[in-house]
Inosine-5'-monophosphate dehydrogenase
Amino acid sequence: MFKDKFTSIREGYTFDDVLLLPAKTSVEPKEVEIFSKVSRNINVRVPIVSSPMDTVTEADMAIAIARYGGIGIVHRNMTVNEQARIVVKVKRSESTIIRNVLTVSPETSLVEVRSIMKAKNVSGFPVVSGEKLVGILTKRDLEFAGKSSKVVNEVMVKDVVSAPDNINIEDAREILYRNRIEKLPLVDKGNRVVGLITAKDIVTREKFPDATRDSKGQLMVGAAVGPFDIERAQTMEKMGADLIVIDTAHAHNENVLNSLKKMRKGISIDLVAGNIATAKAAEDLISTGVDGLRVGIGPGSICTTRIIAGIGVPQITAISDVAEAASSENIPVIADGGIRYSGDIVKALAAGANVVMLGSLLAGTEESPGVEMIINGRKYKSYRGMGSIGAIQTGISDRYGKIGANKFVAEGVEGAVPYRGKVEEVLFQLMGGLKSGMGYVGARTVQDLRENGEFVKITSSGLRESHPHDIRIMMEPPNYQIYQT
Ligand code: XMP
């Protein structure tokens, strides 16, 4: 009974145990396509998801990741209201057509207009009288109005340029340019304001052609929620989140499965569940109706779960086991944790993942909420596990073991990672490495890589040979940091 446990024991592999075989190719790295799926209905042009950790994803990270083609998942180590505010901030950061247009009337005082501008962070308003568009008022008009107590009617532009609601973006762009205006109100047949297009939003849209956007042109964003927190999930959906990501250390749990069924019925946006690391867990989760799976028990750079609890599956094996189970149902797989280099992303996708989730690699960027610090003359940013003492004390108590009021069994550590510059630069390097890997394998698409990437198992000497050796590195390239241990 005990001996048998080891006679048929499987070997589990992680990133450093394998390499991809180079194959005959007709694909150049610049030709490859890296679009993929995060969940049943969420497509991305870049297969990167930022982790819901309090030193990784808040508004700035979610905006940056979505602009460059991935999607950010806002962490939940805060109140529902705080998380909702972040989701709204991401959704409001860009849009092609603003639908809930703030308007003022000709009789509104300029004092009131200034205060609305400040409170709502807007730079102008269509002016309506009895629902009909009669003018437009921008910051510039206010600048010349002086401080005297005037009303909108005295300073607004009266010959306002507007367009019909069904105008396409190219035509709107042309009207904005021809009239040298910043804002174009959209009106229905009765001249009622039903939308607004701004020059700023059009320029931003053109600057980020790969951005992950919804049908209204707004950036997409996900929100993490606890496995039993249906209320939080519903609030996030109401606030505009495009995806709910269940955030639990062990999703293969009877209570979690029951709760997922309820949650699936209670929200209409995509629901990704995890974390898991086995095929059986994938099957059970899929049967609850979830739209994506998050894989990884203990591979993360800040995780101590495997050491503290003795539990886990090396990540390449976990990814391939889950992906195999998920493939018959076409459920996308997110490989979460343990990614240190771009080569790990290529391996994760070839093992069966559709996208990867990053913590450490993004925690060092300018857009992460972590604290900047200088250690021995070098810039770092704070990074901590969500199961670390610090993270548990400031919020989350249900992901990892909080036992009693002030007793914790931590499953993560707190530390710092090297500063890496902007998200844009990090993603450029990571995606460059991915495209290069796809070129070696001869994979034109991520799906090609998933289906045809072949692995070779390596030894510890093979790993040593893989890294630079027999040289003192004097110049650190941006995609290979000497700091790595
Ligand atoms: P990387 O390697 O990208 O991993 O830094 C990020 C992922 O690690 C998970 N995570 C934790 N796992 N204890 C754990 O065992 C923790 O305290 C912890 N915090 C985060 C999480 O899945 C994240 O995306």
About this structure: The mean pLDDT is 92. The pocket of xanthosine-5'-monophosphate is lined by residues 51, 53, 275, 296, 298, 300-303, 305, 336-339, 357-360, 385-388, 411-412 (CB under 6 Å). The two ends are 40 Å apart (CA to CA).
